[in-house]
UniProtKB/TrEMBL annotation:
<dbReference type="GO" id="GO:0008270">
    <property type="term" value="F:zinc ion binding"/>
</dbReference>
<dbReference type="Pfam" id="PF15227">
    <property type="entry name" value="zf-C3HC4_4"/>
</dbReference>
<keyword id="KW-0862">Zinc</keyword>
<keyword id="KW-0479">Metal-binding</keyword>
<feature type="compositionally biased region" description="Polar residues">
    <location>
        <begin position="120"/>
        <end position="151"/>
    </location>
</feature>
<dbReference type="InterPro" id="IPR017907">
    <property type="entry name" value="Znf_RING_CS"/>
</dbReference>
<dbReference type="InterPro" id="IPR004331">
    <property type="entry name" value="SPX_dom"/>
</dbReference>
<feature type="domain" description="RING-type">
    <location>
        <begin position="429"/>
        <end position="468"/>
    </location>
</feature>
<feature type="region of interest" description="Disordered">
    <location>
        <begin position="120"/>
        <end position="159"/>
    </location>
</feature>
<dbReference type="Pfam" id="PF03105">
    <property type="entry name" value="SPX"/>
</dbReference>
<protein>
    <submittedName>
        <fullName>DEKNAAC104318</fullName>
    </submittedName>
</protein>
<dbReference type="InterPro" id="IPR013083">
    <property type="entry name" value="Znf_RING/FYVE/PHD"/>
</dbReference>
<keyword id="KW-0863">Zinc-finger</keyword>
<dbReference type="InterPro" id="IPR001841">
    <property type="entry name" value="Znf_RING"/>
</dbReference>
<feature type="domain" description="SPX">
    <location>
        <begin position="1"/>
        <end position="390"/>
    </location>
</feature>
Amino acid sequence: MKFAKTFQKVLSEETLPPEWVDKAIQYKALKKIINKTVTELESVGVSRDEMTIDYEISKLQRRMRPVLRMNVSPLAESLIKGKLDSLGYKYNIKPLQTQETEDLDEVLEETDELQNERLVSSLHSDSGTINNDDVTPNKSESTLSSQTSAPPSMVKDSSVYKEPALPTIIHEIDDDESFLDQASVQTSIVASVADYLSTPLAREPTSVSVSSLMTALNPFDDKPFYEITVSLHEDAKFFQTLYEEIEALNDFSDERENEIMQWVEKIASIVAHASSPDVKKNDLYVWRQIFQIYIDSQIFFSTIERSAGANSNAVSRIRYGKFLEKIEEEQLVTRFKQKESLAGFMEFKELNESILKVANFQTMNIMAISKILKKFDKRTHFKSKQMFPELIQRSEQLNILQNSMGRDLCTIMTNRLLNIVPQVEDYTCPICCSVAYKPIRLNCGHLFCVRCLVKLQRKGEDRCPLCRQDVVMKADEGNLDVSLMEYLKLYFPKEVKIKQAENEKEIFKEQFGSVVDPDAKACVIV
Ligand SMILES: [Zn+2]
Ligand SMILES: [Zn+2]
């Protein structure tokens, strides 16, 4: 299926809010602008076979500015110029620079008499004539500054220009909005050649140089001689439209992220109330189990090393489905005792579905951006995708789950909910792996249950099993973490009860173990 169709299908099938659909990349409209760009390129005579083309895109403030530079032969130059004029484009034409003219520029820049003498002697060396390339007109600072003293109109009247006038290709652009700077616009072949030829000490070879200049401008010579710089309309429209759509989508992502954060807060307060130990018949254990399953499902992010990182949308969807199945299996929702818990769970479901939708919507947009740029490049033969990486970078930030903020978002969400409904894993004794009740905090800061600590002391093991510091034998009643003990009793009443029963059994066994145990077995047998 063609991408345009797939894109349209996803947008309509996802039951997305209409304001989202409005913000989606206008793929079809952009495709139309590409067609218009191709037509425009043809209408001004841009042809890849006949010229070297350089394409650049820059951005000034919030305006995208594509610039097309063509190196063309004199014949192509006059054809394109005619087309550009008739279509009313702003453009600039300047003769191409060559290595030799750059050398000449350096010489011309030096103005004192001695330097001029050196110039003449170098010009007269060997054959005594000037090489064609040496007089290739060219823009330089010296020619620009001398324009005021010898404007082209005055030069035309001088003896040098009795012959047919050279093509004047000044194209004045008085508009400030033009992307071209005034200096380059005002550069003219006449000015630069005239400037060179009117240098008093260089007059002698005049006749030779003008005729050789005329051969250089032979209109049937197909070597590139001019550089035409022009800013077209349709490609500018294409990039401007795309840029604005990407920016709007970035704002959209930010809005969704804020919305999700507020949503998490809302759910958090519902869950906090419904599972508060102060509330009779609270749903603490049901919510804990739901969040435990939720975390284990790793819906949006995987923490398993092999595939750590953000999940693809497809994986997220599958895992979310499995999460719901598990909740169903355990019949957790039917076990809610508080009315608000059910409402809270529906909100929680909606929130997750919304995150999935945003992620899918933005992934489709990122694809659309990539595809449309590829299409533009394919149709125009430009390399805009490489040339303006900012568009791609900005588009990659669109996926709230792939960008760094999305990661923070999920961490904040999970932590916020976990704080309300703490998980027993965070409060287990590292030795016996059950809840660390009663909790003894050693001087090194590590936490163990009182039973395991007593056993360590009996063995005379002084080192903390986690950090190897000599702190075990120093521990006494003062190391009991009383506030944590109260917290564990509140939030893990079932686990604490089981642990207490086990502890009592163990203590009893220690005291009467040899007597009771065989009897107990005997009882079972009897
Ligand atoms: Zn323990
Ligand atoms: Zn320790």
